[in-house]
């Protein structure tokens, strides 16, 4: 059996290649891919921005050739005896034909971070499907832009409830990333720190990650939610997901935006800013929008996209700001995320986030569309 995959052989260049069906190791499984999302990380890799976790023990450069795709949903095609015995992450029994999603991060389970940080994949030896494994080495099929995908032993995967469609389930990894809001709750207190109910929140960047944060802000009791982006298309989507006000940066100046945020908050400033863009420059504007003691969450610059200058006095010390960086999501956030998709299906049009589907032969076209301001979540459907 030959399996087709879209392979990124070098930055900016895809080829459709075929691979033999791999024989399963014990503890492995083979998934028939239904949909695989294009993430901001995939865009960075396509453009040659391949360094991740820079300055840490986990620092890596994405290898080529590679099969991308770490936001995946599919059905079990084949599973080994160990999987039949252990079930999914929550020990739910699984069988051939069951729909599943996966956490793309593989961790060692033994390093300092694995033993001290509950849930978060900060492993010193972390490897990520679609980012860390070259397709030049067996078992080759370690990304979702393929007809079938191989799960190595130790991969975390999760059975999808029957009433959740592939178009919604493919968003599970992104919704797991929105556990960042639960993390901000960890810092909350009535000395006005962290994220508390009724807070004014500014979201910079409403691509799919930002949009799911907007939805979860509503679920968690945020007050006014203000979304900032360059795309009217995405800002319109943000309104569907609960944004109270949207601002297009191409139609306003920085001083106008800062003045507006302060006027909406009685001259105080936003309680929380979520930075979800893939450029570093808006971080400074976000800090300036915060009130004293406000919190800024940085999740947008997953790859090294450059530097900005911060005044430690003006931007950090004087304002008593909390700067929170989160580069990953908890492995135990998938179950809660799927439950939220189910419970709030009538309130939020989650499936509408998937705006475009492309086949393997259209990988380059799909990537270009994902960079367009006229798109939401762009996915690869290997069977188109």
TrEMBL record:
<dbReference type="InterPro" id="IPR050129">
    <property type="entry name" value="Zn_alcohol_dh"/>
</dbReference>
<dbReference type="InterPro" id="IPR011032">
    <property type="entry name" value="GroES-like_sf"/>
</dbReference>
<dbReference type="GO" id="GO:0016491">
    <property type="term" value="F:oxidoreductase activity"/>
</dbReference>
<dbReference type="InterPro" id="IPR013149">
    <property type="entry name" value="ADH-like_C"/>
</dbReference>
<dbReference type="InterPro" id="IPR013154">
    <property type="entry name" value="ADH-like_N"/>
</dbReference>
<keyword id="KW-0560">Oxidoreductase</keyword>
<dbReference type="InterPro" id="IPR036291">
    <property type="entry name" value="NAD(P)-bd_dom_sf"/>
</dbReference>
<feature type="domain" description="Alcohol dehydrogenase-like N-terminal">
    <location>
        <begin position="26"/>
        <end position="161"/>
    </location>
</feature>
<protein>
    <submittedName>
        <fullName>L-threonine 3-dehydrogenase</fullName>
    </submittedName>
</protein>
<dbReference type="Pfam" id="PF00107">
    <property type="entry name" value="ADH_zinc_N"/>
</dbReference>
<feature type="domain" description="Alcohol dehydrogenase-like C-terminal">
    <location>
        <begin position="208"/>
        <end position="327"/>
    </location>
</feature>
<dbReference type="Pfam" id="PF08240">
    <property type="entry name" value="ADH_N"/>
</dbReference>
